Amino acid sequence: MKKALHRLAVSVSAFPVASRLIETAKSAIRHLLRELYHRVTSLKRSLAACFVLLDDLKRRLAALESQVAALQPTLSIATPSPASSGRLDREGDEPTLARPVSQLCTQSQVDSEIYALWREALRLDGGYRRKYWEYVYILQALQSLGQIAAGKTGLGFGVGQEPLSAYLAAQGCHVVATDMQSGGGSAGKWAETGQHAASADHLNVHGICPPGLFQRNVHFRVVDMNAMPEDLAGFDFVWSSCAMEHLGSLERGMTFLRRSLSCLKPGGVAVHTTEFNVYSDDTTVDFGPTVLFRKKDIEAIRQEMVALGHAMAVNYHPGNGPLDFFVDFEPCGDPHLKYLVSGYVTTSFGIIIQKGRGIP
After folding, report:
1. Residue 332 has pLDDT above 90, yes or no
2. pTM score of the predicted model
């Protein structure tokens, strides 16, 4: 009887210890279950993101297949001859923003410190987007030629809702910003994508320039680039960002380029960007809502400008970075330095022309 009572006493005294062990085990199990739940939830989110990316990839592949099918009948026409003299040479130095000339958009320029500084000044987000390169190229070209300074006068064509007018105004430049008449047709299409301005109110949406200074320094005007008024003259610089290829034909684009020089003072600077056909120097899109300039078209422009006494240097190097070989297509994504248009690989091309100092 004494032994039984002793065993019972020992069992009772051990109960709190066992109870604590059980509670500890339960707490550990609860912690493991919570950790497992969080990990499963995180995995589900990751899988959901993967499915979204997969769906996007499927849409892009379907779009590409549709484009290829539609272009199949013309691919044999669009193929340049192997002996084409217009093949772009990857030898020599790539173009840079430090010393801009008339040049193609390339990855190395977008990766440069100069590009990063301009991107910050213009309040642009990241990514490899050739439209952003165009903004940076235009301003860097103007700055390198001493055009961005208080009192300088500038004329912008087809400005849409780009931030260039606001930045130039903030530096003390006096700007006339122009765009096509509002309404249907092309203007309506550009307005739907945020690329048309109906007034100066659209040009400082990011607050780059203080409102009062902006109102003093920026004047908005409706201008048809195919019928430019004669009173647009005497400016220190002019610019346009991928507008001249939307005038209906290559010849109209070249006519605009020539006419833009008549808006300048002697020694003034014209900076334009446009679509460049990287794929072929033979066939191209030479008529329609978006035309593609070839190397031989740019060469014809250069030779004409030099013959008239203007200055225009060119670098046709297409870049050697990995993204210089990547071709984007509808729906557009990132990177977007090269792009498939009507069966041709295109990119942005910048043009810098300095008007002869003795030419009125």
Report:
1. no
2. 0.75
